[in-house]
Amino acid sequence: MGEQLVTSSFSTASTVVADQPVIAVTSLTVRYGAVTALREVSLEVGRGEIVGVLGPNGAGKSTLMRTIAGVHKPVTGQVLLEGRPVVGGAPEKAARAGLRLVPEGRRIFGPLTVEENLRIGSMSRGSTLKDDLEAAYDRFPILGERRSQSAGTLSGGEQQQLAIARALMAHPTVILYDEPSLGLAPRIVDQIFELIAHLRDEGVTSVLVEQNARLALDLSDRAYVLGSGSITASGKSSDLAKIDLAQLYLGKGAQR
Ligand SMILES: Nc1ncnc2c1ncn2[C@@H]1O[C@H](COP(=O)(O)OP(=O)(O)OP(=O)(O)O)[C@@H](O)[C@H]1O
Ligand SMILES: [Mg+2]
């Protein structure tokens, strides 16, 4: 039954975005020297969707996120953001176009204060820095309390909140989350996933990389499974959730 689900949903309307996709990735191949991290990867993300990207360690998930964010230059293929090409090696351009990456491992600046970290993420969209900081502290009261504390002294969950708050300072329309649940207690993970769902309700489009496949499939609308640099399965998250995880990760039943 599982095989049927993946194979059939792969090519039906459920995995194809009706309007112009916010993100369209076509035949992306990315190499690090002799290592091919992504091979002919194609995916689409529609406006207001939460799309999951699942897969085991080393599958290429972070490489895919960084390439969509304009960090890496693909060998072949392209990334379109709102129909416009993302230029590899120029992440500031993707950022200006409204995309923000919440990177794996948070990547906050430990020696700087919470507020200094937020200022770094700031990108004026007609609002003042003061308003944006206030909005961040409204959304994340703990960050308000800790605004003058060096970010490196925050707990893991607080650092993840700071990483997301820093991304939101740019008023993004698209957020790529790379393993936001990593190393966090279940209660904190629930809060972060609730926030991602809430941001979707505010109209933000999201891509969610997760090793915790069950959680990601619960939250996302559709998902892609990456294995060794290639998409091995894709479909509606509710359909993929019915498939045994090991089978899903092995790519059994997926169209190639
Ligand atoms: N800077 C780099 N130089 C060389 N190889 C790299 C580099 N970054 C990643 N790789 C390799 O590319 C492949 C994909 O790595 P990537 O970090 O994208 O995987 P991932 O799916 O995010 O893994 P994880 O779940 O562990 O975060 C791996 O084989 C990795 O060793
Ligand atoms: Mg990774």
In short:
This protein has 256 residues and is α/β, with parallel strands linked by helices. It is built from eleven helices and ten strands.
Task: Give a description of the structure.
The chain is an alpha/beta fold and 256 residues long. The chain has a single domain (2-250), classed as P-loop containing nucleotide triphosphate hydrolases (Rossmann fold, 3-Layer(aba) Sandwich), CATH 3.40.50.300. Helices cover 37% and strands 24% of the residues. It has helices at residues 2-11, 61-68, 91-96, 114-121, 129-139, 141-145, 156-168, 186-201, 213-219, 237-240, 245-250; strands spanning 23-32, 35-45, 50-54, 76-81, 84-85, 99-102, 174-178, 205-210, 222-227, 230-236. The strands form 2 sheets. A 6-stranded mixed β-sheet has the order 6-7-8-3-9-10, with helices on both faces. A 4-stranded antiparallel β-sheet has the order 2-1-4-5, with helices on one face. A hairpin with a 2-residue loop joins strand 4 (76-81) and strand 5. Helix 4 (114-121) packs parallel to helix 7 (156-168). The longest helix is centred in the C-terminal third of the chain and has 16 residues, at 186-201. The radius of gyration is 18 Å and the shape is globular. The two termini are 18 Å apart. Mean pLDDT is 88; it is low at 1-14. Bound molecules: adenosine-5'-triphosphate and magnesium ion. Residues 32, 35, 37, 55, 57-63, 104, 211 line the site of adenosine-5'-triphosphate.
* Beta-strand percentage range: 15-25%
Stated plainly, the CATH topology is called Rossmann fold
Largest sheet: 6 strands, mixed
Q: List the ligand species.
A: adenosine-5'-triphosphate, magnesium ion
Number of domains: 1
* CATH class category label: Alpha Beta
Distance between the termini: 18 Å
The SSE string, one letter per element, is HEEEHEEHEHHHHEHEHEEHH
- Estimate the global geometry from the Cα principal axes: globular
The portion of residues assigned to helices is: 25-40%
Q: Tell me the total number of β-strands.
A: 10
**What is the level-2 CATH architecture name?**
3-Layer(aba) Sandwich
Structural category = alpha/beta
The strands making up the biggest β-sheet line up spatially as: 6-7-8-3-9-10
- At the fourth level of CATH, the homologous superfamily is P-loop containing nucleotide triphosphate hydrolases
Spans of at least 5 consecutive residues with low confidence: 1-14
